[in-house]
């Protein structure tokens, strides 16, 4: 291991180290902690300018209830779920198929196709903004859930293909030869050999895609307009404009937006990190 | 009845000529072992028979049916892989029944086939376990069982024992031979281990650089190699080779002189030689005799190193100007194998000898010039 | 039909498998991007007819002072983002200790990574607030007044980038921790036996093993810096007076608010060309082992 692990029998150094780490961590997260505490403050306290001190009262239920009842946040939250969950499913299905083909079949243009999937994933969103928006308007999907779902599935398939291809390519080749020798069709191989073996990859990809789609802001403002379909990210930004002085409510809304990806992350941390690194580094 | 026929099989990978005009006919029930150095094309040839690799040209028939363009699953073959290739998420029973399940066979039939294979391979107790819970030898048996359940026309084995430790390998060798005797099916087996080839094969196919060098029964190949490659490839320790020159020819007899002035006369040569031609003389380590005054050809050397293997002893002898080419030890000394244990001191001078009838003579292009030696019929 | 299927399924099936993903991605992402380049040669308000203007949009860019502001800001983003990999590595080295509870600490450090950029923007807008922000609190404790970072033309971009660095450093931290996890114990052992420790160990033994991870961290950071949009949109809307725009934001503004789609397309095409260099570099390195493999 590097750096060399601290010796077990050096309690002073260990304590010094631990205190330093905790201090840095506190600094690292202080902005978020402040938002969290403020989301618990009362309106009077916010008005009085107590943003960083210990809250005088804990208005957890009041504030979060207020966010749900007095703002459109509940609607936005639901919209985000309605957009994100089908997008994740779509990405998983499509990228399993593309990743399987790109990792197990050699054909002309395979490398080019793979390069396009990966490269397209790094394009600035604005380069496709006008035609995508146009397309959604012309087929009547603009300002509907479908516009966001279709776009996210398309875009995330790029990264997801890289991810799945690398994962499936790392499976032993002889398993696939064995399946062929036993007369399994490509579909049967996919269904009975590939799918059971890529479950961990699917889990990792699911939470990564969930996070990416949930956190998207640009397409939320480009492809939607009405509160009925607007996702939380765009909603939060609106809310900030409308509730300028009610910082406790804005803070509560901010935390609400952050909760799903953070919870996902903590529940499936191992998958998340493996996914992020496998996706970036070759599997 | 013929089981597998390879007719003018060719395989190119880009610019690499992996298989060159391979022709081979395998009879029903044969156990054919393909050997050769790594990269000789033996695995490619096996995968070509399996259909996992396509052929560039040529025809492949299994039981008289042209299968050249058929998918692996439609060829009536089953394959056992080097890594066993067991599906890690399936139980032993599911692994063994997978092929039949893919073919949508009735459940009862699959169960019966699995049970039969499990019984043959003594895997009845393991059927519900996952591959991870099995030992190496058990996994190997599951892989074979998976092949058996398909009741194929031909079994293909791709170095199946190379991942096992030495003791288990010997045991599995015996089991496979027994299995072959029990099932009586055609089996094609690829290995780089010549002990496996010698012990299991009814016929050995020696491959080199994509071509078949020689096909024949193990002892036939060992005693009567067609060329210097086969002579050098089969047999451990390796045959001693000495470069020489033909100095005299009369009829089918010839006199060969090697460095250091060693002279050997050969009779009844089957190929033509002319005076001045460069040749290679070969003598197997077990045919070299130490300190035996009765040997017709004799020369002296000093002991470099001795390996005591218990029932036999291998002595490396440096014979001064007389050098060997391409020996196991990488030095130009003679390898001598004697069947008893005697102490040798490094540096002590010994006399080496052999009988010309035990030696081989190879032409410059590698073909064998000496007449066939008598082989015990088995 | 059945024999046709049996003998051809081995190419029909993969074609069918790859079709949906390839078509969707090809049309929505690749074709759309190409179309934008095409649009950049037109004058278009997004509704009426397009009018061919050739390179006029690009010529106009050269005279647009706002364009230069965006370009300069993109460079500031790029330069400051270069801090993320070394900071991430430093944090990773700090945190890579096998101590109980370290796992939780590490995951807490990762949190900014999973936050939406809107969340990060809101949080930092608040930190920067000159009257009640954390910054003003710090400054007033020293008896001075905090600068209004987000309304100062000269400081605003730096302030936004610092906020954007927060998740970016976390991302590099994740990558480097994974990299440190995959170090060869044998090599480190050999280094220790040879008497290396501290810096020499880091430079000669550790960093060479982190090459792949560092490359990824660098590439993703560069591309992330150039793509920046969300933080600018959320924190400043390009203000004050357009002083914090970047190319991506200027394009959005020109298209959506000013209905100058052709001009917007030209801006994003410029951005694309700049990024294409880095994307190509990334792809080359990523795909090179494949070519060797065949």
Descriptive account of the structure:
The complex is a heterotrimer of chains A (283), B (378) and C (294). Chain A is mainly α. Chain A is built from 14 helices and no strands. The longest helix of chain A is centred in the first third of the chain and has 32 residues, at 73-104. Chain B is an alpha+beta fold and 378 residues long. Chain B folds into two domains: 2-232, P-loop containing nucleotide triphosphate hydrolases (Rossmann fold); 240-362, Nucleic acid-binding proteins (OB fold (Dihydrolipoamide Acetyltransferase, E2P)). In chain B, the strands form four sheets. Chain B has a six-stranded mixed sheet, with helices on both faces. In chain B, strands 13-12-11-14-20 form a five-stranded antiparallel sheet. In chain B, strands 15-19-16-17-18 form a five-stranded antiparallel sheet, with no helix packed on it. In chain B, a hairpin with a 4-residue loop joins strand 12 and strand 13 (263-266). Chain C has one domain: Orthogonal Bundle (MetI-like fold), CATH 1.10.3720. Chain C is mainly α and 294 residues long. Chain C has 14 helices and two strands, in the order H-E-E-H-H-H-H-H-H-H-H-H-H-H-H-H. Chain C starts with a helix and ends with a helix. In chain C, 75% of the residues lie in helices and 1% in strands. Chains in contact: A-B, A-C, B-C. Chains A and B meet through helix 8 and helix 9 of A and strand 6 and helix 2 of B.
What's the topology here?
The complex is a heterotrimer of chains A (283), B (378) and C (294).
Chain A lengths: L10 H28 L4 H5 L12 H11 L2 H32 L5 H11 L5 H13 L6 H25 L3 H9 L4 H12 L1 H17 L2 H6 L8 H11 L4 H21 L1 H12 L3
Chain B lengths: L1 E12 L2 E12 L3 E5 L6 H9 L6 E6 L2 E2 L10 E4 L11 H11 L4 H14 L15 H14 L4 E5 L7 H18 L2 E5 L3 H7 L2 E6 L2 E6 L1 H6 L4 H6 L6 E11 L2 E6 L4 E4 L11 E6 L5 E2 L6 E12 L4 E6 L15 E5 L10 E6 L5 E3 L16
Parallel strand pairs in B: 3-8, 3-9, 6-7, 7-8
Antiparallel strand pairs in B: 1-2, 1-4, 4-5, 9-10, 11-12, 11-14, 12-13, 14-20, 15-19, 16-17, 16-19, 17-18
Helix pairs in contact in B: 2-3, 2-4, 3-4
Chain C lengths: L1 H38 L2 E2 L7 E2 L3 H7 L2 H17 L2 H12 L6 H13 L2 H12 L5 H8 L14 H26 L3 H9 L4 H12 L1 H17 L2 H6 L11 H11 L3 H33 L1
Antiparallel strand pairs in C: 1-2
